[in-house]
Amino acid sequence: MRITVPRHRDLPRAKTSLKGWGVAAGVALVTGAMMVLAPAADAATTLGASAAQSGRYFGTAVPNSKLGDSTYSTILDREFNMITPENEMKWDATEPSQNSFSFGAADAIVAHATAHGQRMRGHTLAWYQQQPGWVQNLSGTALRNAMINHINQVMAHYKGKIYAWDVVNEAYADGTGGGRRDSNLQRTGNDWIEVAFRTARAADPAAKLCYNDYNTDGVNAKSTGVYNMVQDFKARGVPIDCVGFQSHITNSIPSDYQANLQRFANLGVDVQITELDVSGSNQAAVYGQITQACMNVTRCTGITTWGIRDSDSWRSGENPLLFDASGNKKAAYTSVLNALNAAGPGPSSSPSTGTSTSPSPSPSVSPSSQPSQSPPPSGGCTAAVSSVNQWNTGFTATIRVTAGSAGVNAWTVTANLPSGATITNSWNATPSGTSGTVRFTNLSYNGHIDGGAYTEFGFQANGNASGLTVSCSGS
Ligand code: G3I
Predict the structure, then answer these.
(1) Are 248 and 306 contacting, i.e. CB atoms less than 8 angstroms apart?
(2) Which terminal residue of the chain has fewer beta carbons within 10 Å of its beta carbon, N or C?
(3) ∠ at Cα 311 (305, 313), nearest 5°?
(4) Which atom from ligand 1 is nearest to the alpha carbon of 306?
């Protein structure tokens, strides 16, 4: 795996002066392929304060049951300035019987946060898991109306106290299809997510409204399904402000982790890492890479770890968090702190809508993870259809552009669309038309592809993908 290393001029500017950033000593901490300037004496010394320097937050999941543990709460209140209730705001906890609400445990967490100057992420309003029994037994209009009532009542109770809500959690299926997960909520109609977000906006207009999911941490079929939904919501004015990437990581992150965050940010939503935990022997480096990726994306507004100490984690035995069972800081903690301290001014000045102005990485990745195809020529580029998701009336296609060994600085892919196929939207490239022979040209951030590396773009179309062909020219 290779992460594209930001060229030095693209590294976030910490301050106009380099005072206090360890540059004079020439110190650089290399975490995987990411270079992070090490902090010096005046760098902040807690996660929350370090994140705040760039306008971001650093949070953690908190179960109410741990607040009385003084070792735990000491770390919580020293290090974290955002709290997600681990289970206490889920449907089974807040509405155990229909229209009868139980907010005690969640209220205790909110009270703790208020007392310690911490903000809250609400988690979560509509999810296929942790539904009370009465919800599991509903379907159709009754379930749809119950969801709407649940969102209205819970958001009204916490109105003005929640920075961001995970309005909908984990609605997309794993695997190659990029479609929705089957669930009782999904069976109420494909518009259930849209209804949830519209309801949420009316219930608390000040709260940021997020979609949250796992296994969406790189560019893949599932994340592209979510991407298409967000793009559609933005195009049609359905309210959505942020996308959460859970990032329950085993061993390593996808090489396009940052590029994936950036493509969502480019749709005009904030992106947040919402449930971070990392297993494996390379843990410290991976934590640093993830933090750096967030710092490199202007609209990545914060990071939340899913617990504090290893012993608090839902991933029993994997020790995936930043503090050991005794509450000592691990090497991963230092990696995160250094990456936070190296970041420059960030999302505090970002509007809640509009496109990112941050330097975008070239989302090219190493040839080692390419699908098998003809070796690219030394100059120019090749194009291949790397995936197609077809449904009865349309499809999405992902096109992989692979540079020859000399690399390219610009590329054009000519796609011959089958008769009857009409493009309705596209991403990561600009199309010349919507049907017949369509030329896709690179955007400013993905024109450059290193020799042998590739980038991907995609489009959605009405009709049938059968017979789609692509070819590439590069310079
Ligand atoms: O509180 C009861 C306890 O009374 C009972 O004795 C015990 C017996 O099993 O269960 C306890 O409840 C457990 C609860 O955690 C609190 O510990 C549930 O069984 C258990 O299912 C629940 O697991 C939670 C899980 O979501 C449920 O899906 C985890 O704590 C929580 O960390 C996890 O969080 C999810 C996010 O919400 C969404 N993304 C994935 C993430 C990890 O799975």
Answers:
(1) yes
(2) C
(3) 40
(4) 32
Answer yes or no: are the C-beta atoms of 192 and 144 closer than 8 Å: yes
Of 79, 86, 88, 275, the catalytic one is 275
Provide the strand spans (E) within 12-90.
28-31, 34-37, 57-62, 82-85
Pocket flag, ligand 1, residue 130 (CB < 6 Å): yes
Does residue 65 line the site of ligand 1, with CB under 6 A?
no
- The answer to whether 194 is a known catalytic residue is no
Q: Which atom of ligand 1 is closest in space to residue 90's alpha carbon?
A: 37
- Contacts of residue 73, defined as CB under 8 A and 6 or more positions apart, other chains included, come to 66, 67, 112
Give the chain's length.
475
- Identify which of 314, 316, 318 to mutate to test ligand 1's pocket (most ligand atoms within 8 A of the CB): 314
**Ordered per-residue pLDDT tens for the chain, 475 residues:** 333 323 332 323 322 222 222 222 222 332 332 333 333 346 899 999 999 999 999 999 999 999 999 999 999 999 999 999 999 999 999 999 999 999 999 999 999 999 999 999 999 999 999 999 999 999 999 999 999 999 999 999 999 999 999 999 999 999 888 999 999 999 999 999 999 999 999 999 999 999 999 999 999 999 999 999 999 999 999 999 999 999 999 999 999 999 999 999 999 999 999 999 999 999 999 999 999 999 999 999 999 999 999 999 999 899 999 999 999 999 999 999 999 999 966 554 333 323 232 333 333 333 333 333 444 556 799 999 987 766 667 777 878 899 898 889 999 999 999 999 999 877 678 999 999 999 999 987 678 888 888 777 888 788 999 999 999 999 9
User: With contact defined as beta carbons under 8 Å apart, do 303 and 59 qualify?
Assistant: yes
Q: Does the beta carbon of 314 lie inside 6 Å of ligand 1? A: yes
Alpha-carbon distance of 457 to 364, in angstroms, equals: 11
CA distance 319 to 360: 33
**What is the number of the ligand 1 atom nearest to the C-alpha of 61?**
32
- Measured CA to CA, the distance from residue 104 to residue 199 in angstroms comes to 24
For ligand 1, say whether the CB of 409 is within 6 Å of any of its atoms: no
User: How far apart (Å, rounded) are the C-alpha atoms in residues 267 and 257?
Assistant: 16
**Candidates 88, 170, 194, 456; catalytic one:** 170
Mutational test site, ligand 1, from 62, 86, 94, 123, max ligand atoms within 8 Å of CB? 86
pTM: 0.70
- 275 given a catalytic annotation: yes
- Our answer on whether the CB atom of 86 is closer than 6 Å to any ligand 1 atom is yes
Residue 246 alpha carbon, nearest atom of ligand 1? 39
- Sign of the Cα torsion 17, 23, 29, 34 reads positive
Q: Kindly report the protein residue whose alpha carbon is nearest to atom 42 of ligand 1.
A: 314
